[in-house]
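Two entries, shown back to back:
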Amino acid sequence: MLREAWYAVARSEELAPGPIPVRVHGEEWVLFRGADGVASAIGARCPHRGAHLGDGCVAQGEIVCPFHGWRFNREGRCTRVPANRPEEAIPARARVPVRPVMERAGWVWLYTGETPRPLRLFPELEDPEYRRIHFELLWRAHFTRTVENSLDVSHLPFVHADTTGEVDPMVHHLRYGAEGDRLWIHPAPFRRSHPMEPPRPPREDPWSPEEQVEIELWFPNLWIIRAPVAAAAQMCTVLVFTPVDDQTTRIFGACLRNFAQEAALLDEHHLTHTLHVLDEDRRIVESLRPAHAPFDMREEAHVPSDGPAIRFRHLLRKALGRDAR
């Protein structure tokens, strides 16, 4: 698992004031708000007897252990042991680890490494012109398989035959590329309108920028699909993949559009369609074996349409090598 990365772990509105237990890479953390309202994350296990601090409470901006009432501040330092007499010192070992936290785009983000890099987000996520409908899913699948599924265009006519529009199973022109940590894909145009698009006349040039659907991944875990509707109108779906452990991935998602902001029917339509498509994916991805996408290319057969997923594996292997140094 890649540690030097930001992962969405909760929605900001949930953190009021906390504590909220979360898991990333199989490690347990507790989110809470300090007295100043700023979100923090500390290790979930009390160094006294190992009680879960997520079962405690927040008092005066500090976490209170549910077992013996020990208090911990956002720096992970124990500030009070109720059983101690005034002259008795708090043990130096009474500390818990901490991790950087940030709130952006309606989510709480946790950096699992030591020195955080800047958090890059797609501009649509923080553009006031876009309406955002958040959702959250839990898949019993490894992080690698979950991300790679979002880069796979050749499964559409088989897994999503009734939901993503009529698609030629032959991938004639897979347009994709990579610049640094960015992967982009321009999938082949649909033969007819995508179900998320309104009816419109046949397209003169379906490959034109004004008509082109775009899939983009900002390595390792931030994904978007942009679908033009008309003129500057656009509908998007954003997914953030967070590895809970080796068997589980949490997906934080958002449906976005920059038109008809008050149309509740569009909210429902976009969200219902997106959740249905993702559930079709889930049933397949959870069944894949081996559970972890192998780095050894000889362990699976590959064809040209697998190019984006293979590029992701190369990026991940390179990043894991940096993590190990």
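entry 2 starts here
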Amino acid sequence: MLKRHYDRAAQDIGNIINLGHVNVSISDQHLATHYYVTGLGLTRDPYLMTGASNMWVNVGMSQFHLPTGKPEILRGVVGLVVPSREELLDRLTQVRKALAGTKFDFRENNDCVETVCPWGNRIHLHAPDEERFGRIQLGMPYIRFDVRPGTTQRIARFYREVMRAPAEVIKNGTAPEARVQVGEKQYFYFLETDAPEAPYDNHHVQIYISDFSGPHRRLKELGLITMETNEYEYRFTDVIDLDTREVLFVVEHETRSQTNPMYGRPLVNRNPAQTNMDYKPGHDSLGWAIP
């Protein structure tokens, strides 16, 4: 029998195993429906947060959480993969009138469709690409944060040593960028920029980790735990220089264990191309992964 040789390390993803959600407050659930559901083609979770004060929006295996409140702006870009650029552009064109007078906008480039939500959050949408995004045909493969010059090496070290996640510094054009693996083909990027750093406004990101106690022990030693939510979750906000304790970047990390009851919860993802005028039985749902 012919022996096959595999690079087993290629399947290692480190201790952070899933980027679960991005949480930003918004001021109007009606406008959010126009943008996230009608425009982007995503799906409101039908089971949880179904009232008028909060909306959970499914995108493959990840979500946006959109509670009503003072609008929050993530300091960077959220990257999504959607099945069809052509259909996306058609939907975005259709919601222009409904979103007139807000910060909503979109434009194409060779890599993606760059959009701005009604409150100013930047969301870039890509076509499926197995080399870049693996099996994802609908999902959230990355968040790219804007950080100060000279911070990326120390940010990468923080995630490697504290969170036990693979992290390295690469180049994005001419700028250094830290890349941290936070799931299968999911990454946090930290891109150095000369632009003035915007103040942090309490938005947060949520991750699932495999070794739950090890990072907690180290974060507690460093005085970084900000909330002991329950037995399945804790939170921290500061990413620091491990030698000087200088704060390099601030974003709340809602950190959950694999034993959290929400881990692996199946998310409903609809096929946004399905309409009542052109209905095809059996095509209501959309799988997140390339067959």
